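All the exercises in this workshop are built on plain-text protein records. A record pairs a protein's sequence with a compact description of its fold. Read left to right, the backbone structure tokens trace the chain's path through space. Once this layout is familiar, the rest of the handout is easier to follow. Here is such a record, shown just as it appears in the course material:
>
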Amino acid sequence: MPQNKRESFIYTVIMCFTMVLWMSIYNVTLHTGTFNAQVIKDAWLGFPIAYVFAACMDWFVVSGLAKGFAFKYLVKPDSSTLRKVISVSCSMVVPMVIIMSLYGAVEASIRMGDFSNVLFIWLTNIPKNFVMALPFQLIIAGPLVRKVFRTIFPEGKVLA
């Protein structure tokens, strides 16, 4: 886990990249009903704005609230590192799915030129995104990003 603000920022950049790219591909696949090169292209084209939005939401809104919730209700300072990681990850995924599902609903409504279904799209996307985002975060993205992060930045090498 990151040890200071600079590490947290770098970790957030990498984690947001991983999660937003994967969830963009997943959502375009859901929307089109198929997975092919066009899906990856469409996901990649929508990625930059979604990434910036997600990173800002993560850094300025969700991270502090999620960590506060996790350390107040789910873990104690003497809890195992694994328990802390899982608790913070779960606490991050829930609000990020809610926020990014709203982002996706608004984006889809802009593309369609019809805002009458934003609420419906948002509410139906939340469970679809949650069932992908939580396992992906816990099983693939979290371990992968932590491994990459600590390989590039060994503990104690990134100054505060």
